[in-house]
Design a protein that fits this description.
Blueprint lengths: L7 H14 L3 E4 L17 H17 L2 E6 L10 H15 L5 E5 L10 H15 L4 E5 L8 H6 L6 H8 L5 E4 L11 H11 L4 E4 L31 E4 L9 H13 L5 H13 L1 H9 L1 H7 L6 H12 L4 H10 L13
Parallel strand pairs: 1-2, 2-3, 3-4, 4-5, 5-6, 6-7
Length: 344
Amino acid sequence: FYGRQWRDEDRIACLRFVAGAGYRYYLYAPKGDAILRRRWRERWDRTDEARMRSLAACCGGLGLEWGFGLSPLGLVEDPSAENLRRLRDKVRYLEDFGARLLCILFDDMPRNVGALAAAQLDVVAEAMAVSRAEHALVCPSYYSTDPVLERVFGAMPTDYWEELGAGLPAETGIFWTGDKVCADAHDAVGLGEIAARLARRPVLWDNYPVNDGARGANFLRIDAFRGRSSELAGLTQAHFVNPMNQCWLSRIPLQTLALLYAEGPGYEPAAAFARCARAQCGEELAGLLAADLHALQHEGLSALSGFRLAQLRARYAALQSPFAAEVSEWLNGGYAFDPACLTD
């Protein structure tokens, strides 16, 4: 996601949590890490390389298949021999950390080429030619039917999805967020339609509970997953989740998704939220979050003011836990959206 990034120790703790909850994959791809995006031709310094080795060791010890999401900004527009050589070098460099997922991400970047799919296929082919990864995944420029993508990045070329699907190896995953960038629900009809166009089941990139945008930063999306069913397992190749900027609070919805798949038709969102909030936060804080769920999830920070805001601030400041600390910091403007995060 964009904006404020997770602390290293929180990320490691979350990896332990998701592995225990039944998740199988982890993709390190923060938009805030310029070495994976704007400065993709460069390498991390020694300090950051040590961080990546710690990340790799953690994933390896937990049995998580993991990888980096590489967003080579500007490469599609300038696929010079030198830039392609640097791409190959970067893929080798990243995989030397032990990454097993090769992810080339073309999302949320300007494009100034006509034959977009063909140019992107060339980039992916260069990366795959030197990759030793177990799995390869690609995020298209148009990863949803949401009209906002064409408003921001221009009209999608004709047959863009069909051309990508025809040009990528059948085993390569293609990310898809649904009918919206942040979809409220996913169903068989929509996923079946895009599967036909991509000539494969999509890899679902679920933008819940992410809250990194100008609108989303106003909310804490701690409620259970809704608008999804365990039938998604047969409609997708995999189900990835983009969490919130709040690392610890993200655990509540993340655990409910694991319950959704485990319980199948018996899954009930309200009960899942209550169960997972208690499991993660303890009885007292879970009770407060349940009582304030509508305010945090639906009303949002901008709707809270005066006595009500002061009451909430005092309520969560009195509790000692990383979950309460994130609520407090959000209530005090510590996660405000900064448009500057979009410039890279």
